[in-house]
Amino acid sequence: MSDFKPRGGFPAHAGERPDSAAFERGAGPLSRAGEGQGEGFACSGETWSLTPTLFRPGEGARPGRHEPTCEHDSGVGRESGVSRRALIAGLGAAALLSRPRHAFADTLPADSPAPPEKPFVIDLAARGRRTGTAGGTIRTLIAKARDVRYLSVYGYTRLVGYDAALQLRPDLLERVDVAGGVFTFTLRQGHRWSDGHPFTSEDFRYYWEDVANEKALSPEGPPAFFLVDGKPPTVAFPDPVTIRYSWDRPNPMFLPALAAPRDPLIYRPAHYLKTVHARYIGKEAADAKAKALKLRGWAALHNRLDDNYELNNPDCPTLQGWVPRTRSPATRFRFERNCSYHRVDTAGTQLPYVDTIVMDVASQGLLVAKTNAGEADLMFRGLSMPDIPSLKEGETAHRYRTNLWPVARGSEIALYPNLTTQDPGWRALNRDVRYRQALSLAIDRRTLNNTLLFGLGTEGNDTIVSDSPLFSPELRTLNAGYDPAQASRLLDAVGLTRRDGSGMRLMPDGRALELVVESDGEAEMVLDALLLITEFWREVGIRLVTKPQERTNLHRRSIGGMTVMVAAQGLDLAVPTAIMPPTELSPAQPEHYSWPLWSANVESRGKTGEPCDVPEVQHLLELDRQWRHTDDAEQQAAIWREMLMNHAQNTWVIGTVAGALQPVVGADRLVNLPERALYAWDPTALIGVQRLDEVFWDKAADTRAEAK
Amino acid sequence: MIVAILRRVVTMALTLLVISALVFVIIKLPPGDYLTNRIMELRATGEAGSVAKAELLIRQYGLDRPVWQQYLMWVGLMPGPVGFSGLLQGDWGWSFEYDKPVADVVGDALWLTLLINLTAVIFVHLVAIPAAIYSATHRHTVGDAVVTLLGYVGLAVPGFLLALILLFYANRWFDLSIGGLYDSALTNQPWTWTKIRSLLAHLVVPTLVIGLGGTAAMIRRMRANLLDELAKPYTVTARAKGLPPMRALLKYPFRMSLNPFVADIGNLLPHLVSGSVLVSLVLSLPTVGPLLLDALRSQDQFMAGFILMFVAGLTLVGMLISDLTLVWLDPRIRMGAR
């Protein structure tokens, strides 16, 4: 932080905050709390959003132009563009506006937002995309105000992140060097937060020492991916752009965790958060600040301000493409481009191309109707397959297109026989591989496919999809045909030979074989599928009873061992590469409907639940452990394949059909939004890996969006 | 009289206290609390990374305490982490969902709710009373049949369905944006003429939808009441002594037939706040209804508790007002009390 100079030059701020901390940039969440939206440091959006010849920071080709670039608002309203420009000129910044940004980055005041000196240069043409022009607004719809946080998912700005081909690459970081258990991160020279403050190793140190290892903020200590054999790394910060995490052994969990859809954010804006942290201003002072806002303790205040994921706090500096500008509660949220963003295209235009993202809150039931009426330029979350006809219907009238992206999920509906259920009779049955396979063989997946997915789905096990390099066809087809006769033979072999008057089988202890399948009722498709499966299973003498219930309740019953079988969606991580953790396939997953008690046991390190006592599942756990101990991709791939094959052979989870289509609606003239790509939560971060920051408006479309 | 009113006020306070306990118990009845719900949701959507933060936040608001302590703290009968601060002290509580004081969250929504429902109530009266008078005085004519039919249709068509249909055609024919109370581009903007015009345009559909069901019911009741009165001897007398027909109608039978509606004010007031939940949801109106529903779903207990208490309070005040007005309006009740 040696390059940081306290500044008090802007009267609006200096007047408000007499204390010394107030002079620090972004210091005063407290003194600012009552001020209006948009206060703070912003890009000037009003001029360039429609100007055909745009000038962006980093655009060195046209020196001498007098278009506004990024500058801070310094208390002047956004609408008063002229007076602000005059003010800037008065501050001696006129030169700043008339020369390309790169040339004199050193002479900038420490806190002007600007791209790093060594930005991430994106070669769009090489990837078959068009180099864009800047400006415009993208409107989208959300169902709840809290859903604004998904922008930090599909905005997808990570230290390291996946590209569209799911290769892990440095993004915010300039480079990552991995040598065994030693990870060295190198930051970009001159990288800044959205408020212009330098982004340095201090921000990583702050997170590590003052957030992750501060009991008041993280009672459980650092997150699990930091621990190898239960031990945290030694972390060193040799200079402002270098961070080094060292473990004794390789930690293959680390980088994938940083690329996750939910960013763990192992760096925080230290300069901003220190102003409320007990260690830096004293506990009394920190608590007093919290009390003034009716919060209980400084930790609550710190948590509230530390907001790079939830995106509710416009004051919190960020590294992402767009900066929140609206405080909740509101029904319309605005995000403006971050002028410090680190990505630049080959023509020198700083990304993201789009200036503003606007999110309107509308009730869930209206999302489709509003999209159909052309009230969104980009829309995907909240839409689903049954909406496709209504979406298609409005396409020509409102000039958008409905792209259909295949959903990467193991199975749209999967049945989880609970191997750790309390009832001894059911437990014995669920643990019998013949019984599980009989249930699988008795399902007519073709009918399910035709009924639920217009026949477009893939029938078979709950396993990875064919786009994954680890895929092989038998993973999906093994024990997943439709053969009721064989299913009956297997059930007879298990000992379920006796039947009651209506032809339904009886359990060995004389009870009717009445299988209660519980579901959380959130996904309508699951309930529809269960209706059909009831009919299929009736044919082999099994009565299925559906029990939809509230999610919390289901969770409680599951971890209590009360469920016999649960119906839910299948594998989340269905397009893995070898370096992604195979956690979901074994009881290492914290909650898994097939073995909740074993999962609890692993998670609590033996304190609760039951130790796993089925050899095949023990083997899965062992494989998961092996995966965590190696950073050799080939060995990891072998482990993945073995675990997947273990699943296919043992039918731990009964898959049905996969391959639903996710409608991704984009305005006609929104360029660089692919027609078809995989859609998933993990690893694609919804549409994240397709890079929203590269999407831009064709000129004509701009006018239309603004006219709206 | 004053003693009677004071007595009423004291019973109202006690009733409110009982209601507050009931409301709190009912909100706490489902298993789990906001914390567990939130954590489930985060897990289910793959955001387990946020769980620790959510957990920490909730501890700070005392959700880990016994229910009776939470209740007493909420009402303000027991000191919480920051001393006595509850409904009695004017602190309306904290909304977990929005991470803000309830007052801030509900504030704006309350005004818009009142606006919509007041408009609807005015619409109901403006349409229903003339229609009822007409159909009562022209009994068994074609006009009466038409009004009655329309009334029944209004009563029979579910509000949300009508809302969706009207929205669709308002969008198609008048290019009105779907849902909301004004064009979404005008959100967060100061109240200008454009915004007011947009508001008025968007008010039409909710007013129609919320009002129509009420209108039908009111026409039916008013018509029945009037018919009763029209057959009474005093009406015959009035006509016989040669009063002009309009005056003979409005001065006596009409006035009598208003009685049930005055008695209804008690129900009308809370209806102003909570009456349009379903329609507000469908129309995506920024009113209290959707807030209440969400709060109940996610067990955002103080928020739900406050809204329910507010509605309960309005009911009690409405009852008081309607009783007083009845005493003033109807000599029979006034005399009967003596």
Topology:
The complex is a heterodimer of chains A (708) and B (338).
Chain A: H1 11-16, H2 29-32, H3 81-90, H4 94-98, E1 120-122, E2 137-142, H5 150-154, E3 160-162, E4 168-170, E5 175-179, E6 182-186, H6 201-212, E7 234-239, E8 242-246, H7 254-258, H8 270-273, H9 278-281, H10 283-292, H11 298-305, E9 322-324, E10 332-337, E11 343-345, E12 356-361, H12 367-372, E13 378-379, H13 388-393, H14 395-398, E14 400-406, E15 414-417, H15 424-430, H16 433-441, H17 445-452, E16 458-459, H18 473-477, H19 484-494, E17 514-519, H20 524-538, E18 543-548, H21 551-559, E19 565-568, H22 596-603, H23 615-628, H24 633-650, E20 654-655, E21 657-658, E22 661-667, E23 670-671, E24 696-697, H25 699-707
Parallel strand pairs in A: 1-11, 2-12, 17-18, 17-19
Antiparallel strand pairs in A: 3-4, 5-6, 6-8, 7-8, 9-10, 10-12, 13-22, 14-22, 15-19, 15-20, 16-21, 23-24
Helix pairs in contact in A: 10-11, 16-19, 23-24
Chain B: H1 2-28, H2 34-44, H3 51-59, H4 67-75, E1 94-95, E2 100-101, H5 102-137, H6 142-156, H7 159-174, H8 193-230, H9 233-240, H10 245-257, H11 259-263, H12 265-274, H13 277-283, H14 288-298, H15 301-329, H16 331-337
Antiparallel strand pairs in B: 1-2
Helix pairs in contact in B: 1-15, 2-3, 5-6, 5-8, 5-12, 6-8, 7-8, 7-13, 8-10, 9-10, 12-15, 13-14, 14-15, 15-16
